[in-house]
Amino acid sequence: MIVTNVMAGLPYAIIALLVVAVVYPVIDYFIDRHGLRKYPAPSIAGFSPLWQMYYNYFGVKYLAVHRVHQQLGPVVRLGPKHVSFSSPQAFREIYGHGTSIIKDAFYDNQAGGNPNMADVTSKEVHRGKRKNLSFVFAAKQIIAMEPRVMAIVDKLLKAVAIKSQGGRVSSQDRFAVSKEGTFDLRPWLNMFSYDAITNVFWSQTYGFLDRGDDDCLAQNPDGSVQSVHAMQTFHTGAAWSVFLGHLTPFWYGLFKRQLLAWTFRNKCGDNFTGMARYLATQRLQHPPAVPDLFSNLPVTATAKRPDPMALEEIIAESSVMLNAGNDTTQSSLTNTMYFLARNPDKQTKLRKILKESLPASSIPVASYEDLQHIPYLRAVIDESFRLHAPLGTGAPRLTTEPTVIDGEHIQAGVTVSNQTWSLHRNESLFRDALAYIPERWLPENPDYTDEERQNLKDFVAPFSMGPRACIGRNLAYMELSICIAGLVMAFEWKLGQKDFVLKYHERFNLNPIELPIKATPVL
Ligand code: HEM
Ligand SMILES: *[C@@H]1O[C@H](CO)[C@@H](O)[C@H](O)[C@H]1NC(C)=O
Ligand SMILES: *[C@@H]1O[C@H](CO)[C@@H](O)[C@H](O)[C@H]1NC(C)=O
Ligand SMILES: *[C@@H]1O[C@H](CO)[C@@H](O)[C@H](O)[C@H]1NC(C)=O
Ligand SMILES: *[C@@H]1O[C@H](CO)[C@@H](O)[C@H](O)[C@H]1NC(C)=O
Ligand SMILES: *[C@H]1O[C@H](CO)[C@@H](O)[C@H](O)[C@H]1NC(C)=O
């Protein structure tokens, strides 16, 4: 009886599905409430989020958007309500200060009910959170963390010394070395960035570099604890939520939390929050003797701040630090080492400059205080940010009132974006845009004009810009400088194969896949 009812209902269900999936989007397209039909769109992008989802699924959306702009011009529609801009002017207009533009619903989707500082879309709530966290990232606190980062760079160099000889750092080491002594550097840089952020933030170093594996603990909301693989957890989880993130919040909720809640990929996202929950609860139970970055969070009531941050909020912010502090950092480390291995002349030049400018006691691990004054080191890092920014895609923003962007009148309620991948490769801003030339960044280099240097300042934006720009920028430069300088002073680097080209998989960030490399000690 029930079965026949279901069967009888099936045609209606199919019709309903067709209406929702096909007819409604087409009608919506022609009604054109936001006046977007005048903009060119690739294939079905004007009707459906499937265009963006398709390219996200395969991890190449940044390339698809880049190509579409080359084919269709500076203003292109990427989704039913999403317009992408490609003029330099647009970048400032979208991301800069003093606009009414906010983060898109895409971020609400990522947040799942308890938004962290990076996800939250409301300007007011964001301002409050940013204020709460600004103490954490004040220059003074970051400088206090230097010795911790230096100690972990030291561990990384020890691990690389072992890997370069074909050894294993411990009996748990899961990472292979080939007969010729080639190994994949990426997971080691990733384990470095994990060990560094867990140390400076929660004083709970994961110890991945000591063991050569990425097993860590995650805590479920019910308090139970399990062991998870850190690297896999986040990547699979992130790919999944970015893929579904293009749906409107209603459809996202339905898919992610109802229909697909059981899937492996979805669980991974939960495991990742679990890692942050475990770090935060452990840290609250065992305050360290020496202050860490967490010490600056308002987690306990004081006379000045009578109501402290709630546990769920602490977990949400912990999760963004674990994520932002790790993934972008390891991507930029991998990119920079790739460019240096690919360009031996730049690598040799950097090594020479470092060794000449530093006292013997600072070789190979120097403090950021010393390294800050070496422009070539900064140029090497900035040039890799330009060519391969860890966030390549255009971070989606939402107009809240009619706005003029790049001369176009855009109504309220439209998603707008502009991707750094394309911006950073614009030949009219950067001469030889596709070449890795750190020298272009050097102050007063006569080979480049002041205008060219100004373009670098204005239009290379790996940390985004405006009110939602990266809060961890100083911490990032500190970690990157100490780590890159150490790796270059201690070893000479050669690509595993001479013509190796680094490949990427884009989730939200643009993640390098593997970097097979050889390291020869040079100290
Ligand atoms: C090379 C390293 C890094 C790069 C390239 C980078 C890049 C970025 C970018 C592009 C954004 C804007 C994202 C968006 O609009 O969706 C951002 C935001 C953010 N980053 Fe970073 N980041 C780096 C390191 C870090 C570190 C080490 C931390 C902290 C531990 C951090 C914490 C954050 C936070 C909390 C936000 C959100 C800020 C807000 O919405 O107010 N980042 N980052
Ligand atoms: C590159 O920059 C120029 C000059 O600012 C701009 O006119 C042009 O549209 C940009 N190119 C692309 C592909 O966005
Ligand atoms: C995530 O946690 C579940 C248990 O809740 C576990 O079965 C699964 O293996 C974990 N996934 C990863 C990638 O660690
Ligand atoms: C950290 O970044 C690496 C590389 O992108 C990734 O494999 C790992 O899952 C990330 N982990 C977290 C917790 O963000
Ligand atoms: C900022 O911290 C205070 C505790 O001092 C907390 O009550 C408040 O909710 C936080 N603000 C936001 C927007 O998270
Ligand atoms: C983004 O904006 C910059 C400048 O603001 C421009 O040069 C670049 O081409 C834009 N790219 C895309 C894809 O929107």
UniProtKB/TrEMBL annotation:
What cofactor(s) does the depicted protein rely on? heme
Which of UniProt's keywords are assigned here?
Heme, Iron, Membrane, Metal-binding, Monooxygenase, Oxidoreductase, Transmembrane, Transmembrane helix
Q: Which segments cross the bilayer?
A: 12-31
InterPro entries on file: Cyt_P450, Cyt_P450_CS, Cyt_P450_E_grp-I, Cyt_P450_sf, Cytochrome_P450_monoxygenase
Database matches in SUPFAM superfamilies:
Cytochrome P450
Q: What family does the database annotate? A: Belongs to the cytochrome P450 family.
- Can you name this protein? Benzoate 4-monooxygenase cytochrome P450
